[in-house]
Amino acid sequence: MKLKVIVHQAEEGGFWAEVPAIPGCATQGETFEELLQNIYEAVEGCLSVQ
């Protein structure tokens, strides 16, 4: 499954991301690598609830 992820750089440092196709599915990370891991977990969690 392919999903579009929009990544933002947080003003206070780090990053946050959202998945437009899954309302409310968003996460953050201090580094881009941490954000990538977190987004996989967030998508998995959001899809398991729907």
Describe this structure in words.
The protein is α+β, with helices and mostly antiparallel strands and 50 residues long. 36% of the residues lie in helices and 24% in strands. It is built from 1 helix and 3 strands. Strand 1 and strand 2 form a beta hairpin. It starts with 5 loop residues before the first strand and ends with a helix. The model has no long low-confidence stretch (mean pLDDT 96).
Describe, in short, the structure shown:
This protein has 50 residues and is of the alpha+beta class.
What's the overall average pLDDT, rounded? 96
Structural class: alpha+beta
Helix content: 25-40%
Number of helices: 1
Query: Quick one: overall form?
Result: elongated
H and E string = EEEH
| Major sheet: arrangement of strands | 1-2-3
Strand content: 15-25%
- Major sheet size, sense and barrel closure: 3 strands, antiparallel
C-alpha Rg (nearest Å): 11 Å
Report low-confidence residues grouped into runs of 5 or more: none
Measured distance between first and last alpha carbons: 16 Å
Number of strands: 3
List keywords for this structure.
50 residues; alpha+beta; 1 helix; 3 strands; elongated
Walk me through the topology:
Blueprint: E1 6-9, E2 15-18, E3 26-29, H1 32-49
Antiparallel strand pairs: 1-2, 2-3
